[in-house]
Amino acid sequence: MSAATDAPHLLVVDDDARLRALLQRFLTEQGFRVTAAADAAAARRALAAVSFDLMVLDVMMPGESGLELTESLRRDGPEVPILMLTARGAPDDRVAGFETGVDDYLAKPFDPRELALRIRTILRRAAPPPPPPESSTGPIQIGSRWFDVQRAELRGPEGVVRLTGGEQALLLALAQRPNEVLSREEIATALGTPEAGERAIDVQVTRLRRKIEPDPREPRFVQTVRHRGYVLRPGL
């Protein structure tokens, strides 16, 4: 297998033809394979035909927006990591992106080198984690499910539970230090988004709770420790 074929395959979705071409050229020069799409419909066709390692997605597009596409994919589509691009940099817009399930967020205008750095960070996070230390106690029970720290995989009676890259990284960070409080800053670093605000981290926790808690409004496993952060309490 050639190095080019082995390179991560990215899908760049942006209705701005000039920016789309610039990103395709730059990211190709950075060693990625790149497919470009002008809108959500073209992105859906590409996703149906090819398995991508990551999608770079613009928010503001004619027709189906990037947020709407992300929400749909997180509900029904392939679990591809998503880095969202937008001309809007307000915290509320960033939170809206995390609420739909994006893995990271970059406001325009941006330095292309930062884009490449963030892409590599997400890809590293999506890669299988290193084996846990020998002292690891193995899979951790979370209610009727088990989280395999070595595989970063959550399983239950229904089989493997689908987690986004951000949800997987969050649960892994908590599971590697069970019963220990992690600050929001520590969690943001574990997610590869050290600049993320508190609300963005809270949104990621809320999304994870929907996947693992019997009642997300009364969490038993991922608990809030006021003024300190979050802690995973394993068990039945």
Automatic annotation (TrEMBL):
Q: Does the keyword Glycoprotein apply?
A: no
Q: Where is the OmpR/PhoB-type domain?
A: 137-234
Residues with PTM 4-aspartylphosphate? 58
Protein name (database record): Response regulator
Q: Annotated DNA-binding ranges? A: 137-234
Q: Which GO terms describe its cellular component?
A: cytosol; protein-DNA complex
Assigned keywords, A-Z: DNA-binding, Phosphoprotein, Transcription, Transcription regulation, Two-component regulatory system
Q: Which organism is it from?
A: Falsiroseomonas algicola
PROSITE patterns linked: OMPR_PHOB, RESPONSE_REGULATORY
**Could you state one GO biological process linked to this protein?**
regulation of DNA-templated transcription
Which molecular-function annotation in GO is an example for this chain?
phosphorelay response regulator activity
Residues covered by the Response regulatory domain: 9-123
